[in-house]
Amino acid sequence: MSSVLRGQSLIDKAVELTGDAESAILMSFLNQISVTDSLSIGTQLKKTEIKDYDVVDFFSIVKPATALSPKLYEYELPGEFPFSF
Question: Using N-to-C axis directions, what is the helix angle for 10-18 and 23-31, rounded to 10°?
Answer without folding.
Answer: 110
